[in-house]
Amino acid sequence: MNQINNGNTEQGFAEFNKLPTWFFDVVFTGGAGLISPSGTAQTTVNLEPGKYVIECYVKMPNGMFHSAMGMLAELDVLPANNNRRKPIARDTITISSELGIAFKDEIQPGEHTFAVNFKDQIAHEHFIGHDVHLVRLKDENSIKDLNNWMNWADPEAFKTPAPQGVEFLGGTQEMPAGNTSYFTVTLTPGNYALIAEVPNPIDKNMLKTFTVPQNGVLEK
Questions:
Q1: Distance, CA of 34 to CA of 135 (rounded, Å)
Q2: Could you read off the pLDDT of 16-66 as tens digits, one per residue?
Q3: Taking Cα atoms as reference points, which of 184, 217, 179 lies closest to residue 95?
Q4: How far is CA 111 from CA 166, 191, 216, in A?
Q5: Alpha helices, DSSP H only, in the chain?
Q6: Shortest CA distance to 1 belongs to which of 63, 57, 55?
Q7: CB 137 within 8 A of CB 190
Q8: What are the angstrom distances between the C-alpha of 216 and each of 118, 121, 131, 189?
Q9: What is the C-alpha separation between 191 and 208, in angstroms, rounded?
Q10: Whether the Cβ atoms of residue 199 and residue 158 lie closer than 8 Å to each other
Q11: Quick check: pTM over 0.70?
Q12: Which residues lie below 8 Å from residue 209, measured CB to CB, with a gap of 6+?
């Protein structure tokens, strides 16, 4: 990342080829979506027994990953079943590389549990897969900045703070094809977006705006 941040993009990405071979067997299994300061996110995933890593790869203003600053922890999932049931989803979101983000176009104020179905999964230009984040748009003019900010591989993007006029409310990180993750959020009237953390999500149909109305139905 130091190479990339110093403008040596080709040399910087070449360093990723020096990662140990076991890294390429890592399976990304979901997690909480992006959340703005002072917020709380609730995401539910089903984890098989094994060893996991929780990390944050948002970047500092100088380009350093948060994980390199200490936002990294190991998690052991034990074989014992905790007997918890999957949440009851009020709304469903489907994401795929071919069709982008698809969801029901009637969303009322109140608490919602979204089921996010990963129809497929691919490695995009920034080497990782697609996911889903929920954003409240305080300023609709911020959509272009938000679209450009979502690509971690851009030396100038994915840095704190996030673009002005947006508030991240959670969501889910990438998962393999066929998996489902759940996130719960309370929505108040206003303008929102569902967006994937991929390069140029607008062109991939992975940035969808919607409105939670005072009364009536959503306006796309």
A1: 9
A2: 888 898 988 899 999 999 999 999 999 999 999 999 999 999 999 988 899
A3: 179
A4: 20, 16, 16
A5: 2-5, 9-15, 143-149
A6: 63
A7: yes
A8: 29, 35, 29, 11
A9: 11
A10: no
A11: yes
A12: 137, 140, 143, 191, 192, 193, 220
Q: Are 132 and 123 in contact (CB under 8 A)?
A: no
State the Cα torsion 192-101-29-92 to the nearest 10°.
Answer: 80
The answer to whether the peptide bond before residue 79 is cis (omega within 30 degrees of 0) is no
Phi and psi angles of residue 204, each rounded to the nearest 5 degrees, phi first: -95, 10
Amino acid at residue number 199: P
Written as one letter, the residue type at 129 is G
Closest listed residue to residue 120, CA positions, set 172, 177, 173: 177
Q: Are 210 and 192 spatial neighbours (Cβ–Cβ below 8 Å)?
A: yes
C-alpha span between 94 and 130 (Å, rounded): 11
Nearest in space to 195 (alpha carbons), one of 141, 131, 151, 119: 131
Cα gap 73→82, rounded to integer Å: 21
The DSSP annotation for 138-153 comes to: S-GGGHHHHHHHT-TT
- The pLDDT tens digits for 63-98 are 889 998 999 999 999 999 888 999 999 899 999 999
Write the single-letter amino acid at 121: Q
